[in-house]
Design brief:
mainly alpha, globular
């Protein structure tokens, strides 16, 4: 496909209500994919995992004591599957996807507020904790994104070093399958390249 299979699936599932007609345009798809996938989810993965690779010995960092903000974000991620479950049974795919989009928004707000790039110079343990929290949020988001963008979601799970046999919804419950401190991670690669078609985006 011109824009990629996952990108096209994402647009159709987030912009068209299941069982209803919908409008399609190249411009709408490009804006949606660039905003939600490239700028929000993709950029969150890239900057988090780049910091982990460069500043945490290329391995999942060991978190320290969690703050109220850390706990709140993790609690929201852990509740994501339950929030999405009813939408699956009711075939409300658009609402399912929007829960994931909102979770990524919250994670981006968190990383901007915590600014681990600043903590690197002042409090490395706190930096490690912030990066760990985001990796765990990304694990939940990526596992739940598999029905919508299977190829891309699994690329993110690969980058997080989540074992292939721990990527089902059942692995979201409890603490057993959280990202494991000390697990090696590879140098991150971009998962969602921006679609550059200026004549469509600017028109």
């Amino acid at each position: 496909m011109q824009y990629g299979v996952d990108q096209t699936r994402f647009f159709l599932m987030t912009e068209v209500n299941f069982g209803s007609d919908g409008d399609f345009s190249d411009k709408a798809l490009i804006l949606k994919v660039n905003n939600n996938l490239a700028n929000e989810l993709g950029n969150l993965c890239q900057r988090t995992l780049s910091m982990v690779f460069k500043n945490c010995g290329a391995a999942v960092p060991t978190p320290g004591a969690l703050t109220e903000e850390d706990e709140a974000l993790l609690a929201s991620a852990r509740g994501l599957h339950e929030r999405c479950a009813s939408y699956i049974s009711e075939q409300k795919i658009q609402k399912y996807a929007n829960e994931l989009i909102e979770m990524v928004w919250d994670a981006n707000k968190y990383i901007d507020t915590m600014a681990p790039w600043k903590l690197r110079k002042t409090d490395e343990q706190r930096m490690a904790t912030v990066l760990y929290v985001i990796m765990e949020v990304l694990r939940h988001v990526s596992i739940l994104y598999q029905p919508i963008i299977p190829g891309s979601a699994n690329k993110i799970l690969d980058l997080l070093s989540v074992p292939e046999d721990q990527r089902s919804f059942e692995h979201l419950a409890g603490d057993t399958y959280m990202v494991q401190p000390g697990t090696p991670v590879n140098k991150p690669e971009g998962v969602f390249p921006r679609i550059e078609v200026p004549e469509l985006v600017e028109s």
